[in-house]
Write a structure and sequence with these properties.
The chain has about 100 residues and is mostly helical. The chain is about 80% helix and about 0% strand. It has one domain (about 5-104): Serine Threonine Protein Phosphatase 5, Tetratricopeptide repeat (Alpha Horseshoe), CATH 1.25.40.10. The chain is built from 6 helices and no strands. Helix 1 packs antiparallel against helix 2 and helix 4 packs antiparallel against helix 5. The longest helix has 18 residues, at about 70-85. The radius of gyration is 14 Å and the shape is globular.
């Protein structure tokens, strides 16, 4: 029996729950397989352990948008803008500002 990517990523997260890259990969895999709510949950866990992981704000916000949770997406984008301003990540800050602007 073949092991799915989700199973592999869950095993990796079980070994290192606070590892940002693995948690991000798990969140993205959920999103890519259409399990958007599970993806949002993993983005929330990611950002609670690694609040400076800028990509989590952008992709988490996009996932919330897909779920129709626009106010939550706006709030996540705003938090991401604060973080990226503080860390000097101008590229991601610009992406977050663009996403927020599109939502109005």
């Amino acid at each position: 029996m073949a092991t799915s990517r989700l199973e592999v990523l869950h095993s990796m997260v079980d070994l290192k729950p606070a590892d940002a890259f693995t948690r991000y990969a798990l969140a993205m895999e959920y999103v890519n397989t259409g399990s958007l709510a599970a993806g949002v949950e993993q983005f929330q866990i990611l950002l609670s352990h690694n609040p400076n992981y800028a990509a989590g704000y952008f992709h988490g916000g996009q996932t919330l948008e897909k779920l129709g949770q626009l106010n939550e997406a706006r709030e996540l984008y705003r938090r991401g803008i604060e973080v990226t301003t503080a860390t000097g990540d101008e590229h991601t800050r610009s992406e977050l500002m663009g996403a927020l602007q599109l939502l109005g």
